[in-house]
Amino acid sequence: MNNANHGLLGTPLARRPRDRTFATMNTMNRRIIRFIIVLFGMTILSSIVWQYVGDQLYDCTDDNMTGFLRPGGWVHRFGGREVVAVPKIAHDHSMSEPDTIKEGWSIGRLWVLWLSFCLVSAGISLLAAWAPWAQGCDRKNEKITEADKLCEQANSAYRR
């Protein structure tokens, strides 16, 4: 008799049915991880796109590649000089010149544009994490098979 497949007193052990709570928690963890990964990717993509869009809308004399990641620091006044609205944005100004913004744009409109980038990123991340087509992978791990039901019946009969 193989003791690995038998319990005390030689009775056969039925396979333990899956714990639904654990499967649901596991599914939620996968969704959260999927959300975080997609959000991280969207942040990188938004930073790249913002660099291109920002070059068309404003010029900050002390700007660098982190324009999207530093909201509000796009253009600012310093040394008593106001931000200047210009018809066409030119770059590579000296630090002694004021920051420029394209005519028709304002710091408030840049904030709205930045916020729309964030909302689109969060929306795409949520869609990727909780979309119906992405849940197929999660649901297949939660299904209780016919074998699980039989094992539960065997275990409940054994407990009596």
Tally of helical runs = 4
Q: Sheet with the most strands?
A: 3 strands, mixed
The end-to-end span amounts to 24 Å
- Adjacency order of strands in the biggest sheet: 1-3-2
How many beta-strand elements? 3
Nearest-integer average pLDDT? 76
Rg (CA only): 29 Å
Structural class by helix and strand composition: mainly alpha
Q: What form results from the Cα inertia axes?
A: rod-shaped
H-E string: HEEEHHH
Low-confidence stretches: none
Total discrete domains: 1
**Strand coverage percent:** 5-15%
Helix fraction bin: 40-55%
Structural features, described:
By secondary structure, this protein is mainly alpha-helical. The protein has one domain (19-159). It is 54% helix and 5% strand. The chain has four helices and three strands; from the N terminus they run H-E-E-E-H-H-H. The chain has helices at residues 20-57, 107-130, 132-142, 146-159, and strands at 58-59, 84-86, 100-102. Strands 1-3-2 form a three-stranded mixed beta sheet. Helix 1 (20-57) runs antiparallel to helix 2. The radius of gyration is 29 Å and the shape is rod-shaped. The two termini are 24 Å apart. The model has no long low-confidence stretch (mean pLDDT 76).
